[in-house]
Amino acid sequence: MSIELRNVSKQFGEVPAVNNINFSVQEGELVALLGPSGGGKTTVLRMIGGLEMPTQGDIFIRGQRVNDVPVQKRNIGFVFQSYALFSSMTVFKNIAFGLKIKNWKKKDRENRVAELIQLLELQGLEKRYPHQLSGGQRQRIAIARALASKPDVLLLDEPFGAVDAKIRQELRQWLVNLHHDLKLTTLFVTHDQEEAMEVSDRIVIFSKGNLEQIGTPREIYEQPMNEFVARFVGVMNILELEVQNGVARRNELEFPAHGSAAGQKMRIGFRPYAVQVSSDLTAYRYHAVLRHTYFLGVMLRLELVLPSGLVLRSRISKEDYSRFGLADGKKVSFEIRTYRILSREGGLLGDEVATTHEMPPSIGEGI
Amino acid sequence: MTASQTQQEGVAKSQRSTQEPALVKWLLITVAILFSVVFIFLPIINVFVQAFSKGWSHYWQVLTQPDTHSAIRLTLLVAAISVPLNVVFGVAASWAIAKFEFRGKSILLTFIDLPFSISPVVSGLMFILLFGVNGLFGSWLDAHGVKIIFAIPGIVLATIFVTFPFVARELIPLMQSTGSDQEQVAMTLGASGWQTFWHITLPSVKWGLLYGVILCNARAMGEFGAVSVVSGHITGMTDTLPLRIEKLYNEFDPAAPFAVASLLALLALVTLALKTVLVWKSERDERIAQQSGIALRLRTAPKK
């Protein structure tokens, strides 16, 4: 076990920032702390790094309780969102700073910096100053500096927040490769669910200081534990149903009541992939008009308007889209194949319910 | 250009932006320039004109008088003691105020500003009341043969008091604005508080610190009121440059006080030049820091 948090809470004065968090990270894992801003994810990262003290609970790094270990002695590498490169030092001195503080010999320092320059592809930049570098280069230097004295864990706060979209894409891939090479336990904070899905082995989702769910990207996408997670990760159609005559309905859509009594309410959610569409109006039981098509690459997202005005989102492959001859304004028929009960009056949350027997496609583009 | 043309241009400009009409603009600029010429530039020029009114040799003769020499030495000594002490104090105070939260922080801030708002004469009197013959510690000091008032220690104390705020006032906003990210990184890399201060904080505030030092120095050398009260005006012993100037002014040679005054005026001009250079340098550093940090943060587009 590389990192473990037990019943960790943090309050800033009267304001609770993190409420009773428990999770652990295995040696060598790449874990994303995901959530909207103000969710407490950065506070958790800073507590692990020793930059904040937990109000309650214990933090362990490699089995050792580190609550009372000062930040200087925790042997962590921390990369700030702003990178916080030392503006008055060259790239070489930035990377060598921690080694100098730890009294490494000059020769060893030079060798280690050279190694990192090689690893992070920063050749030729040794004598430059931070303001002479691009955003991507700055980030790699910040990571090189954090890695220099061989930390037990690498902590990154919004590592891709400060660069533009194209570089962000490259840096993600690059981080995955780096992690693959180093096998170093790595935690990073992000508010971008796509980034968390793409990069990490596991995701920890925070909201308002609470841990909402922890799991692999696939688990989180396919089995969200609650409505927050379902809404936050990927696109979800959410409907509020009311039970009448043994059937739960919303406008023209009907679902089984699942044992709820008449007049009770229930919320269900389903991913766009669960909405199966056809241009053959007799193929499925419901009808709608295709209002708008979003091109997401290989997959397309469809916005369907039902006769009652209800809007649902569906997903379809490019091939099917052209095979059906779909276009904005066309009439389609559709079926909801699977859904999940998110909350109900007087009942617990349910597992995914299939209305047909087809497996959902695995996650991919256009989530 | 006729008046109507000027006005038309003014109207056009004020339509283009929120600028005032040209007439107002030029009026304000003229007033500001006239004011600074009459009240600042001309008097300084006059100091030099008067200083050399009896020729170079007389100027040189005044400056090489033993009493003037001793005043120069004393002024340099007082500055050499009080400026470093105020640097130490200013750095410590601004560090404490910018980096820590503690009870009484606002009171400390007020205390740092106090010397600015007290008349220097009153500052001097405070030391007389403390260390003078009839003062609080006067008899004890007398019994132990320690002389503070009407001696160099009193002059140093009064100067320290008066120049107390310069360094701290300059550093506090700087240290608050540089943010603690770089310092926190240094700590995660194993640096102690002192190492962080020495390697990270100090280099990032160096121009501001230097600026505070030269302002502090200029005031330390030029202070009259507080020093005048505690010095005792013993010619050749406890006269600093400003006190020496006053004494010469009360004598018969009209060129002599201006000759000595030209030294202080020269100090003012050097201070001004240094200040300009330092402000330019610190602004450049700030731009660089912004380019590498804040500017990037602005580009962060929140993703849906």
The total of helices of chain A stands at 9
The largest sheet of chain A, given as strand count, sense and whether it forms a barrel, is: 6 strands, mixed
pLDDT < 50 stretches of chain B:
1-14, 293-304
| Physical arrangement of strands within the biggest beta sheet of chain A | 6-7-8-3-9-10
Task: Explain this structure.
The complex is a heterodimer of chains A (367) and B (304). With 367 residues, chain A is of the alpha+beta class. Chain A is built from 9 helices and 21 strands. In chain A, the strands form 4 sheets. Chain A has a 6-stranded mixed β-sheet with strand order 6-7-8-3-9-10, with helices on both faces. A 6-stranded antiparallel β-sheet of chain A has the order 13-12-11-14-20-21, with no helix packed on it. In chain A, strands 15-19-16-17-18 form a 5-stranded antiparallel β-sheet. Chain B is mostly helical and 304 residues long. Chain B contains 16 helices and no strands. Chain B has helices spanning 3-16, 22-51, 55-63, 66-99, 105-117, 120-131, 138-143, 152-163, 165-177, 181-188, 193-204, 206-222, 225-231, 241-249, 255-292, 294-299. Chain B is globular and about 65 Å long. Chain B starts with a helix and ends in a 5-residue tail after the last helix. Mean pLDDT of chain B is 84; it is low at 1-14 and 293-304. Classes of the chains: A alpha+beta (367), B mainly alpha (304).
